[in-house]
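Support case: UFG complex. Customer-provided input:
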Amino acid sequence: MKKILVTGGLGFIGSHTVVELQNSGFKVIIIDDLSNSKIEVLDNITEITGVKPEFYKLDLKIKSNVLDFFKNKKIDGVIHFAAFKAVGESVQNPLDYYENNIGSLVYLLQGMRDNNIDNLIFSSSCTVYGQSDELPITENAPIKTAESPYGNTKQIGEEIIKESCKAYAMNAIALRYFNPIGAHPSIKIGELPLGIPQNLIPYITQTAAGIRKELSIFGNDYETPDGTAIRDYIHVVDLAKAHIAALNRLLEKKNTKSFNFFNIGTGIGTSVLEIIKTFEKCTGVNLNYKFVAKREGDVTSAFASTKNANEQLDWKAEKSLEEALLSAWKWQQKSNNV
Ligand code: UFG
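Agent response - structure generated as follows:
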């Protein structure tokens, strides 16, 4: 049985990926510092899969923690999620973002190198493209100067991995996520935003639940058919499955370059107003909303070309937007997280 280390394995995307890994017959070791996740998620993963993953509460910012962890462990691959991810917060506190997102990555790579662990999947983001001139966005679209320290950590992270692959004969795939949403169909795991949600879907579900008064739509004069911004919303279970496909590509030595990257989205662009309409229709709940000024740093439109992921990873997003929104709503009702 292949052993996979998942850092940040109790977080939103991490926990869904651990479930898919265990369902696909991998043995999982989770490292999480619980800075943006809850230990209960470990039990919920166990309930879904019937298998309790090995768990270590560990701060990856401390180099000795990381290097000690790897000693005497046989690990076949690493999926690295653990990172801070709030765009606005990264502007307020860039050094914390560089320390956590870059420092930890460097130590992790050193640990992998020293213990001959070759295979790495890295959580990257479509944010590396900024406002792309081409739509849908292919992997050939130029990387734009990052809009935030958070975005910069993803760009720099990819560079560090690429150079490490070259120098130490490692293999890696960066998955550039578009907008992950939804919850596991069991409704036992989902997104757990801390405080006021920054992302659209948790803000919508909290508004529908009466926790927030109304949703503010950031901008209604974008150059889009209805004036609101367009994104590619992907069900988190589909996104989790993309990690298994990418991991298998590495383990089967099919990666054509030592460092490769793929866009992971549905290929479908949906506006904020379309999201609201679809949410209202599939849940039967009406949403209070108002239009406010654009949010700084937001792009008009971003959706993926999925051709490379479809063909080279043999993976495709399968779940509908309705299914994703309904699962997010059920999760909200169950967890009633504030
Ligand atoms: N939006 C609102 N109101 C809200 C929240 C969001 O109108 O309360 C709008 C945004 O303006 C945007 C869309 O809903 O048009 C989606 O916003 P999200 O914050 O959910 O997602 P983003 O596309 O802004 O963010 C995603 C990832 C980030 C990444 C960023 C880069 O979540 O990690 O893309 O563009 F950095």
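The pocket of UFG is lined by residues 85, 87, 125, 127, 150-151, 179, 198-200, 203, 215-218, 229, 231, 272, 295, 298-299 (CB under 6 Å).

Case will auto-close in a few days if no follow-up is received.
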